[in-house]
Write a structure and sequence with these properties.
- This protein is an alpha+beta fold.
- It folds into two domains: 154 residues, Ribosomal Protein S5, domain 2; 127 residues, Alpha-Beta Plaits.
- The chain contains ten helices and eleven strands.
- The strands form two sheets. Strands 1, 2, 3, 4, 5, 6 and 11 form a seven-stranded mixed beta sheet that branches. A four-stranded antiparallel beta sheet has the order 8-9-7-10.
- Strand 3, helix 1 and strand 4 form a beta-alpha-beta unit.
- Helix 1 crosses helix 2, helix 2 packs across helix 3 and helix 9 packs antiparallel against helix 10.
- The structure holds L-homoserine.
- The site of L-homoserine has 13 residues, from helix 5.
Length: 297
């Protein structure tokens, strides 16, 4: 039996659109029992609407890797235990892809390195900012190069916590990307480039006083506010309540604040209250940062 544990992830962290991300201690697991009749069982907190047949994303990803490896598809029994809420900006589809790749690679005798799995995961997901932290853990930067995605772990176990405030509504990434203009001004590009620089410094130096300014963005959050009433106001409320920094998590609708242990109560409450003023009900969860990415035991 193989057990894969894959962390939730939060992408962008404000200005790092499609390149920055971090892994969170909230997990989906995949249990694979080899040499069993094919079947998929879904358990955990999120099973509604997920297929338990050959169209399942974890299974399709496993088959895709075996095809690439020219490895004959084995008959296996899968149990998928889901605790990462789907379509909320916490990397549930990346977790399915990364988990499927790690599972299939393990069953094939681990011919691919983590770096090679990242390249496949990026092709399947379309952007690397969730799959990189899901594979490597910590806070990551994904750099598109001519040879593929270069993953950099900026800090593996930063000394902060994250509050994720998860609205009751779903938002798919395609829709959230659809509201973004195809071109950006030079002024806005410079704003985000400089802020990502500051964020990288904040993580590497562990100087979290830089996160407040570093997590500001002009490329996607303002534009996405039409999809989530109170988005910008909730980020400001988190900062006022003492968060180091706050942002939309991935393409939303979840919001994330990075903070010290002693401000978690005040920040969660302030974010919830602000969202509620805009008619949005949400659930807060305080999480630590995952330090190792997907594991296989
Ligand atoms: N960076 C993506 C976006 C989400 O903001 O659309 C996660 O890959």
């Amino acid at each position: 039996m193989i057990l894969i544990k894959i962390p939730a992830t939060s992408a962008n962290l404000g200005p790092g659109f499609d390149c920055l991300g971090l892994a969170l201690q909230l997990y989906n697991t995949i249990t694979v029992e080899p040499d069993q009749p094919f079947q998929i069982s879904l358990t955990g907190s999120y099973t509604d609407g997920l297929p338990a047949d050959e169209s399942n994303l974890v299974w399709r990803t496993m088959c895709h890797l075996w095809e690439l490896l020219h490895f004959p598809t084995p008959s296996v029994s899968l149990t998928l235990e889901n605790y990462i809420p789907p379509a909320r900006g916490l990397g549930s589809s990346s977790a399915a892809i990364v988990g499927g790749l790690v599972a299939a690679n393990t069953l094939a005798g681990s011919p691919y390195t983590k770096y090679e799995l990242l390249q496949v995961a990026n092709t399947l997901e379309g952007h690397p900012d969730n799959v990189t932290p899901a594979l490597y853990g910590g806070v990551t930067l994904s750099i598109p190069t001519t040879e593929g995605i270069l993953p950099r772990v900026l800090t593996q176990s930063p000394n902060f916590k994250a509050v994720v405030v998860i609205p009751n509504t779903h938002l798919n990434t395609e829709k959230a990307r659809g509201v973004l203009p195809p071109q950006v001004s030079r002024k806005d590009a410079v704003f985000n480039i400089s802020h990502v620089g500051l964020l990288v410094e904040a993580f590497i130096r562990e100087d979290f006083s830089l996160l407040k300014e570093g997590m500001r963005d002009v490329l996607h959050q303002n534009q996405r506010a039409i999809l989530l009433p109170g988005l910008l106001e909730t980020i400001e409320a988190a900062l006022q309540a003492g968060a180091y920094g706050a942002a939309l998590s991935g393409s939303g609708p979840t919001l994330i604040a990075l903070l010290s242990e002693n401000s978690q109560q005040a920040v969660s409450q302030s974010m919830l209250t602000t969202l509620k003023q805009y008619g949005v009900n949400a659930q807060p969860i305080v999480l630590d940062i995952d330090t190792c990415g997907a594991t296989c035991g």
